[in-house]
UniProtKB/TrEMBL annotation:
This is DNA-binding protein. InterPro entries: DNA-bd_dom_put_sf, MerR-type_HTH_dom. It comes from Muribaculum intestinale. Residues 17-49 form the HTH merR-type domain. One of its GO terms (molecular function) is DNA binding. GO terms for biological process: regulation of DNA-templated transcription. Keywords: DNA-binding.
Amino acid sequence: MRELPPTCNPAGVYCVKRACAELGISRKTLRRYRLLGLISPINPDNKQRPKYSGQSIIDCWNLHAKL
């Protein structure tokens, strides 16, 4: 996880690759965070291509930074 907060737009929509880049984590770690409930996709019905809001990426970083 990055030490600096993500610089993504809170109103933006991001694919898995970009969400991982913003958080500085791998796809496996993003999947684990999703299963733990630390981050949730904006389209939970689409398991093949989840999309994440910028605000959920920022919230995930804030949760992880507090640990």
